[in-house]
Amino acid sequence: MSEINLGIIGGGQLGSMLSIAAKKLNIKTIIYCDDIDAPAQNFCDEFMFGKYDDKEKILKFVSKVDVITYEFENIPFETLNEMNKLKAVLPKPSVNRLIQHRLAEKDFINKLNIRTTRYVGIEKKSDIETLEDFLPGILKTTTMGYDGKGQYPIKKIEDLNELNLDFSKGYMLEKLVKLKKEISVIITRFGNHNFEIYEPIENIHQDQILKHSKIPAEVSQKILEQSKDWSIRIAEELKYIGTLCVEFFIDRNENLYVNEIAPRVHNSGHLTINAYNVSQFENHVRSVCSLEKIPLKKLSNAKMINLIGDQIEPYRQNPKLNDNEFFFDYLKKEIKKKRKMGHITTLL
Ligand code: ADP
Ligand code: MG
Questions:
Q1: β-bridge partners, 171
Q2: Closest residue by Cα to residue 43 from 59, 58, 65, 28
Q3: Mutation choice for ligand 1 from 103, 205, 208, 251, CB with most ligand atoms inside 8 A
Q4: What is the DSSP pairing of strand 67-70 with strand 137-141?
């Protein structure tokens, strides 16, 4: 048994898959989560329930672990920063703070001369009047959004007026891109110019939630290279440690845009579990625990389907699977509409 105890903040399916990967490497996982029913408690070695601002419990968690990582973005910066004074938090808390905030994230990407969608911050009602240029667009809360939560399509200025926004929260308006395709690139960085990168993954969203992912992505050589190049530049600039995902849009004129960055393992990378010699989860654990980096090899093409809400039910009752199909049930207690309940990866 290795001596490493890895602390993970967040107990959703990504926490489960990180725990499974860690187990394979003989690393012990301790998960801290504010959901008493967190599904990852089925997969980790030890589970702690507590709020993300409960100082006493957090100190106890920190005392049990050697290094800390996280499986979702929306953790208070203060919490990560305090933990980081005692044990290394990776990726760094400052990286999470930047990416947590959609405006700061997009400003950062543009400073690297990397294209994003056009966007504008909205702080007060009068800001709305001069926004014709950004329409049709999508209004997004600047923080706490995921799976399309906190997003409103806006066709004309009046739509914004009708929303009755609570301006104590921050918003931004983003111009709608006429999408041809969405892709993502997953990269695990171990140190300066030391990384492994997965080939771009093609993604299809339904109702702003990821539904299908596949490799290879059907994109031009130029898009393939540009998306990987931009992802490497982002990871290097952030001095990132761990696995990071960059989500991209491709428009009908073959322009590439960065949509957003996820400072963590990503849903589109579930297929790396079966399609590569080292998954995005194992690479993340290897990187944050300072283990050896293994050259990445693709074993197979693959596609993944998310099972959302009650789509899980037939598979739970009778999972008839072929040899090239892999079903993962996240073991969430309650089936809810729009909730990611499981996935199936098929090797092609
Ligand atoms: P989340 O944090 O919820 O993943 P995203 O900004 O990635 O938020 O938006 C979710 C999905 O909504 C995207 O993957 C895309 O399909 C669609 N979407 C978001 N913004 C735009 C945009 N500006 N133009 C076109 N589609 C968009
Ligand atoms: Mg997204």
A1: 122, 141
A2: 28
A3: 208
A4: unpaired
Atom 5 of ligand 1 has which residue's CA nearest to it?
Answer: 148
Number of structural domains in the chain: 3
Domain shared by 291 and 208, yes or no: yes
65 plus 170 within the same structural domain: no
Helix (H/G/I), strand (E/B), else coil: 226: helix
b/e sequence 57-71, b meaning 16+ C-beta within 10 Å: ebeebbeebebbbbb
Residue 232 sits in a domain of what CATH number? 3.30.470.20
Going from the Cα of 276 to the center of ligand 2, the distance in angstroms, rounded, reads: 23
Dig out the tokens for 108 from the structure.
């950062």
- pLDDT score of 92: 98
Q: Which residues pair with 119 in a beta bridge?
A: 174
Q: Where are the alpha helices (DSSP H) in 144-271?
A: 157-162, 221-237
Query: Residues with Cβ < 8 Å from 277, sequence gap 6 or more?
Result: 294, 296, 297, 299
Q: Is residue 107 part of a domain?
A: no
Question: pTM higher than 0.70 for the full model?
Answer: yes
Largest CA distance in the chain: 62
| CB 171, CB 101: distance < 8 Å | no
**Cα(341)–Cα(211) distance, integer angstroms:** 12
**Percentage of the chain exceeding pLDDT 90:** 86
For residue 120, what are its two tokens?
Answer: 């504008």
